[in-house]
Design goal:
Layout lengths: L1 H12 L9 E4 L15 E4 L3 H9 L3 E3 L8 E5 L4 H14 L4 E6 L4 H9 L4 E7 L2 E6 L15 E2 L5 E2 L11 H9 L7 E5 L5 H6 L7 E6 L2 H10 L5 E5 L11 E6 L11 H14 E12 L5 H7 E9 L3 E9 L5
Parallel strand pairs: 1-2, 1-4, 2-3, 4-5, 10-11, 10-13, 11-12, 13-14
Antiparallel strand pairs: 5-7, 6-7, 8-9, 14-16, 15-16
Length: 330
């Protein structure tokens, strides 16, 4: 991770920060420590709400946008190749000084290093903890212009962006859930983990819906959803789906919950979404959800709802309907 490689680069690798000015750090995980930089100089750039909130709670200046200019920049490489290249392009555009790239081998750092070496002079790398860190001098403004990426219109007519879930088109699990939803869902509906808005666009075709609340932690995904769901009944919430709280209870929650942050499956994330859905619903409320067939959500559903039934699916996905959330006794 960055906090294991950055000190080495600063102590003996030849990396030197400019004496003055802010240093932008793009997409760092919430768990790392940024050693070697005074906190007041650090500007965290992050569009994932839990990480944004965690860095803010630690007293750092945080933004979803790379406004710049900055004296230097660090890019913490994300998994998605196009998103990684887009972040590097942004960092090069707003930095007047050195640009540092850090990432794990499993996140494609080797490929990025090779691609950047073909364009600019690369310093380092520092290799440790199954990853690499390297840096480049201030590049020409257009050196990585072809790596820029933002919201784009897919062949299916939806706006998506690199790094958002199912950026290439409609997710098969979400499509399966959309086909299984009843004609009536109630007045107040929540799309928990709404992504770029496919399910919400479908839900707004249901009879009697007065408001659809799109709750999404990925800022860029929510920006895409604003383009895809233009109905005035749509309300957009950049928030963590596991702790978002509305002003009133929901009649229905619909969700295709996330189940990983890195590469490994983490079913506790989806289980936390089930618990959150139960908390958000009115006493007679309903949950409709889809999940990968191997994920263990049944026990959590039965812990949180009086009525739970599997209503179909296919070889890859399972569909659930749960009703009447259980309330903890005080």
């Amino acid at each position: 991770m960055l906090d294991s490689r950055l000190p080495l680069a600063l102590d003996s690798g030849g990396l030197i920060w400019p004496d003055e000015g802010d240093i932008a750090v793009f997409a760092p995980t919430a768990e790392i420590d940024i050693d070697g930089i005074a906190k007041e100089r650090v500007k965290i750039i992050h569009d994932f709400y839990p990480a944004y909130a965690a860095w803010s709670a630690r007293g750092y200046s945080v933004s979803t946008m790379s406004e710049g200019p900055y004296a230097a920049a660090i890019v913490c490489l994300p998994r998605a190749k196009r998103e990684a290249r887009a972040l590097i392009q942004q960092a090069c555009e707003v930095s007047g000084g050195v640009v540092v790239i850090d990432g794990q081998k499993t996140d494609g750092i080797e490929g990025i290093l090779k691609a950047m070496k073909s364009r600019v002079t690369v310093h380092g790398p520092v290799t440790k903890a199954h990853g690499k860190l390297f840096w480049i001098d201030p590049p020409a403004a257009d050196c990585f212009a072809d790596w820029a990426a933002g919201p784009e219109l897919t062949e299916g007519g939806f706006w998506t962006a690199p790094g958002v879930f199912s950026a290439d088109g409609v997710d098969l699990a979400s499509a399966l859930l959309a086909d299984a939803l009843p004609e009536k869902l109630g007045k107040q509906v929540c799309d928990l983990g709404a992504g770029w808005g496919f399910l919400s666009a479908h839900i707004l075709q249901s009879e009697g819906v007065e408001a659809i609340h799109l709750v999404e932690a990925n800022y860029m995904a929510l920006e895409c959803a604003r383009r895809n769901v233009t109905d005035p009944r749509a309300q957009f919430h950049w928030a963590d789906g596991t702790d978002w709280s509305p002003a009133h209870k929901m009649d229905t929650v619909v969700m295709n919950p996330p189940f990983h942050v890195g590469r490994a499956s983490e079913p506790q994330i989806g289980q936390a979404f089930v618990a959150s859905a139960a908390r958000l619903l009115a006493p007679q409320g309903h949950l409709w959800m889809v999940a990968n067939r191997h994920l263990p959500y049944e026990a959590e559903l039965k812990t949180r709802f009086i009525q739970v039934e599997e209503i179909g699916g296919d070889a890859r996905f399972k569909l659930f309907h749960a009703a009447r959330p259980l309330r903890k006794r005080r």
